[in-house]
Every structure is written in structure tokens, then in C-alpha cells.
Amino acid sequence: MNLPYQAAENFLRAIDSDWSQLIDHIGACKFTTKSERDPYEALVRAVAYQQLSTKAGDAILKKLLNHYGHFPAPQHLIATSFDDLRAVGFSGRKIETLYGIANAAISGLVPSQVIAENMSNETLIQQITTIKGIGQWTVEMMLMFTLARMDVLPADDFGIVEGYKRLKKLETAPKRKEMAEIARAWSPYRTVASWYLWQVPK
After folding, report:
1. What domains does the chain contain, in order, with CATH numbers?
2. What gap in Å lies between CA 143 and CA 130, rounded to an integer?
3. In sequence order, what are the residues at sequence separation of 6 or more whose Cβ sits closer than 8 angstroms to the Cβ of residue 3?
4. CA atoms in the 13 A half-sphere facing the CB of 151
5. Per-residue model confidence as pLDDT tens digits over 99-112
6. At what angle do helices 39-49 and 121-128 cross, to 10 degrees?
7. Average pLDDT of the residues in 172-199
């Protein structure tokens, strides 16, 4: 039994009958982190998936890894030509973002795993969103999946917003500000709540 998630499940169940029924239907939380990836790698991977399906993002990452034979270090990414990155499948805008992430990793703007562990969510979001092309959602994915922060809810994530709309049988999905306000009641387990909303049956 995964005790940290058990506490989160019990907490979310107690919110209302919709949450209780959802957890009964989905079962135990299977949220998994990728803490072996540092923030730099997590951000590069997140850019691959921006505004794309999981399948399309997977394909781009596979080509990227095949190009180098491993995950590229920041210096290798910067040294890669624009045309080579286009051939991998990145758009021009995303390539600009990748170069920005790599330069930020070298300068320390994107912190190492050890330094990031001791920084607050707010500080990391504020610092990393100064990179052109990196929005709050991208940093929130890193907070959840790389740093294993348990109280993060990406309030403008399409899957989460749609999941909540279906859970509550709403006519229209809540906007970012409203979603963030609603989710305050799910603290300190907003990451687990996010995972469950991603699983809401279509």
C-alpha cells in the first residue's frame, strides 16, 4: 500500500460524493515521477509535448535521442544546428525555446536537481518562465514529475479542466483563475487530484 497516496485518496474522497465515486471507479493512485531526470532534461522533454498529442511528442523525443544516441547535454544541444533540430520535428519557435533552456541550464537560471529541491514552487515558476517560450504549465509539469511536488495543479491544463467539467457535469469548463480557486480546497494533495482528473472517463 502506498501510504502517501492513501492519505491523499482519503482526503479527496472526503470532499464530496463525486470525488469519492471517481476514486472508487479509478482505484488507487498510480502517479509516478521521473526524479532521475534533472530540471533541464524535464523542460526539454516538456517542450517536445507542448500543443501536441502524446504520440507526436513521443515520436519527436525518439528522433532526438536517436540523433545523439543519448539525451543531449546543454552544450550539445546548443551546438546542434537549427536544420538538424527541424529534421527531428521541432518547430522554429520550439527550437528557439530549446536553445534558451540549454543556455539557461549553463548559466544556472535552470537550476540543478540539488538546488531545485531547495527552491519553492513559486520561485521556480517565476525564475524559469523568464525563458522565452516557457510558460507556467511547462514548469508545473517539471514540479510534478521531476521534483515530485505533491501540491501542484496546472489550472490551465486541458485534461484537468475537461476532467473537472465531466466530473461535475458542467456545461462549460472553468477558466484558469476559477480552476485555481476551486483547487485550493484540494491542497495539500493537488498533484494527486490532478492525476485523478486526468483519469476521468470520457
Report:
1. 3-32+153-198 (1.10.1670.40), 39-145 (1.10.340.30)
2. 16
3. none
4. 9
5. 999 999 999 999 99
6. 60
7. 96
Q: Give the integer Cα–Cα distance in Å for 161 and 16.
A: 18
- For the stretch 85-110, what's the b/e string if a residue is b when 16 or more beta carbons lie within 10 angstroms of its beta carbon? beebbbeeebbebbbbbbebbeeeeb
Q: Identify which of 95, 102, 96, 105 has the alpha carbon closest to the alpha carbon of residue 78.
A: 102
Whose CA is closest to 67, among 33, 99, 96, 90? 90
Instruction: Output the nine-digit C-alpha cell for 142.
Output: 517539471
8 Å CB contact between 110 and 39 = yes
Q: 10: which 3 cell numbers?
A: 482519503
- Is 24 a catalytic site residue? no
Phi, then psi, of 177 in degrees rounded to 5: -60, -45
60: cell is: 519527436
d(CA 111, CA 66): 26
Q: How far apart are CA 187 and CA 62, in angstroms?
A: 36
Which of 18, 24, 84, 157 is catalytic? The answer is 157
For residue 171, the 8-state DSSP code is: S
Q: How confident is the model at residue 116 (pLDDT cuts 50, 70, 90)?
A: very high
